From TrEMBL:
InterPro entries, per the entry: ArsR-like_HTH, AsnC-type_HTH_dom, Dimeric_a/b-barrel, Tscrpt_reg_AsnC-like, Tscrpt_reg_AsnC/Lrp_C, Tscrpt_reg_HTH_AsnC-type_CS, WH-like_DNA-bd_sf, WH_DNA-bd_sf
GO cellular component assignments: cytosol
Signal sequence bounds: none
Limits of the HTH asnC-type domain: 12-73
Keyword terms, alphabetized: DNA-binding, Transcription, Transcription regulation
Protein name: AsnC family transcriptional regulator
Species of provenance: Bacillus gobiensis
Length: 158
């Protein structure tokens, strides 16, 4: 299961914050171009980014894909209530599902909040009836289908 999130006792200097800010907006920028923007050599930028990765501050580099352009037309948010003794087991099973894009343990009586994407409504229904509802410990499921995306946060800004 995913690790717990907390704010580490780590101090980033202004240069690291600038690097992270630029990478957040332009993840494909070259070390040379990044260095020019912040006044460091390519080697110094590369060393700082490697350190940020080793410290776990940068988890990975990835492409943000528009789901509609690749045939994903149904985006759904789920609130899943689970019997407490099954919470970890259900979470472990759901995090392995390809359709599940994010999964969080929320406050409340053993609530999991998750986001899933599906090609169409039938695929979502198959997920619900074939994978989610049958999980031992699932008490209730509340779904909200996304109508329109105005903003989607990828990563975080400092």
């Amino acid at each position: 299961m995913a690790e717990n999130y907390f704010i580490p006792d780590l101090t980033l200097d202004e240069t690291d914050k600038k690097i992270l800010s630029i990478l957040h907006e332009e993840g494909r920028i070259s070390y040379t171009d990044l260095g020019k923007r912040i006044g460091l050599s390519r080697v110094a930028v590369q060393a700082r980014i490697n350190n940020l990765m080793e410290e776990g501050i940068i988890e990975k580099f990835t492409a943000v894909i528009n789901p509609v352009k690749v045939g994903i037309h149904v985006s759904v948010f789920f609130n899943v209530e689970v019997e407490p003794k099954y919470l970890e087991t259900v979470a472990d099973q759901l995090e392995r599902e390809q359709a599940v894009t994010s999964l969080y343990h929320m406050t409340g009586p053993s609530k999991l909040h998750m986001h899933g994407i599906f090609s169409n409504e039938q695929e979502m229904e198959n997920f619900l009836t074939g994978k989610l509802y049958p999980l031992q410990g699932v008490v209730s499921v509340d779904c909200q289908m996304l109508i329109k995306r105005y903003k989607s946060r990828m990563g975080m800004k400092l």
